[in-house]
Amino acid sequence: MPLPATIPLPGGLAMPAVGLGTFRVRGQEAVDAVSWALAAGYRHIDTASIYKNEEEIGTAIRASGIPREQLFITSKVSPYQQGTEAATAACEASLRLLGTHIDLMLVHWPGVAKVDAASPDNAAMRRQTWRVLEQLHRRGQLRVIGVSNYEIKHLEELLGYAEVKPAVNQVECHPRYQQRDLRAFCQAHGIAVVAYSSFGSSQLLSDPAVQAVVAAEGITPAQALLLWGLQRGCGVLPKSVRRERIEEAAPARLAGLGELSPEALAALDALEEQQQQKYCWDPSGIA
Ligand SMILES: NC(=O)c1ccc[n+]([C@@H]2O[C@H](COP(=O)([O-])OP(=O)(O)OC[C@H]3O[C@@H](n4cnc5c(N)ncnc54)[C@H](OP(=O)(O)O)[C@@H]3O)[C@@H](O)[C@H]2O)c1
Fold first, then answer.
1. Which of 95, 209, 220, 234, CA to CA, is 20 to 30 A from 189?
2. Rounded to the nearest whole angstrom, what is the distance from the C-alpha of residue 96 to the centroid of ligand 1?
3. Which of 174, 188, 278 is CA-nearest to residue 228?
4. What is the DSSP string of 130-195?
5. What pLDDT was estimated at residue 212?
6. Is the pLDDT at 1 greater than 80, yes or no?
7. Tell me: the pLDDT tens digits for 214-226?
8. For residue 170, which atom of ligand 1 is closest to its CA?
């Protein structure tokens, strides 16, 4: 079965299922990585205000000559930019730096920087941020809006007051941290899941269990982990600053591989039971 190349979003928008991750990529390295990715067929770039590379991404996009409507740009409002005034300024800055509209704007994190994780201020401020995103969405500057690192409790709260429902939840998700309950909740509420850190920030690539699984398939560990995410219905965000690695994870290369065999899929599915492992920050403590 061919894997879907896009994930449907509200308003008839189609999000390319494979996007280039750009965390910790700045300056000329960011321009190069995005340029190579676009040349390799990527049409979705994932950035965030806190990555401090939106300007470079805008530059690479314009230089590519690819019509803007063929591209999909995700950015995020950082934990330092929560609340009405800061989130408004953050969105304006992202739009200015990128030099184009934003296809998907996310609330990066349910918490607020420098606010205690247990404080009710987190909920009050992320609600204000959501209202800002809703307003800019209605004005057409943010085509779709969503969240990132939201647990079920954060989503339930948001769904209770959202006038525009979140279209996406971007979360850490890979065979050692599968987010089964969260993915089921999102599916039930029509929220697309985008998986980040598919490679466990590179540590999963050398995991002996992953290596054993992929040897039989004749594919690379990166490809196996990305196919696992796609087959679980998620978008994926491979990140690399190396051209050959960007090409190894390109959408057409992955599509050409088809699905993982049932045995490989089952072996990767079994990893979390053997040992659950989270590689990124944990939002469960945010009230
Ligand atoms: N919303 C959030 O809070 C959040 C959090 C984390 C990540 N993200 C997004 O998701 C993206 C991906 O996550 P991530 O950056 O944490 O990590 P990742 O994609 O799991 O792993 C990236 C690391 O793997 C290495 N790598 C990539 N391809 C490789 C290959 N074929 N062989 C060997 N090593 C390879 C990269 O090194 P080189 O660059 O040197 O190749 C990099 O160090 C981010 O860039 C960001 O866009 C979002």
1. 95
2. 26
3. 174
4. HHHHHHHHHTTSEEEEEEES--HHHHHHHHHH-SS---EEEEE-BTTB--HHHHHHHHHTT-EEEE
5. 87
6. no
7. 888 889 999 999 9
8. 1
Q: Please state, in angstroms and rounded to a whole number, the distance separating the CA atoms of residues 67 and 253.
A: 22
Instruction: Give me the domains of the chain, ranges plus CATH numbers.
Output: 6-273 (3.20.20.100)
Nearest to 240 by CA among 25, 57, 11: 25
Q: Which residues pair with 195 in a beta bridge?
A: 171, 236
- In 3D space, the residue among 253, 234, 247 whose CA is nearest the CA of residue 196 turns out to be 234
Number of alpha carbons in the 13 Å side-chain half-sphere of residue 131: 11
Mutational pocket test of ligand 1: of 34, 172, 196, the residue with most ligand atoms within 8 Å of the beta carbon: 196
Q: Write down the mean pLDDT value for the chain.
A: 97
Q: Is 174 known to sit in a ligand binding site?
A: no
pLDDT reading at 2 higher than 90: no
Amino acid identity at 149:
N
Average pLDDT of 49-53? Answer: 98
Whether residue 170 is predicted with pLDDT greater than 90 in this model: the reply is: yes
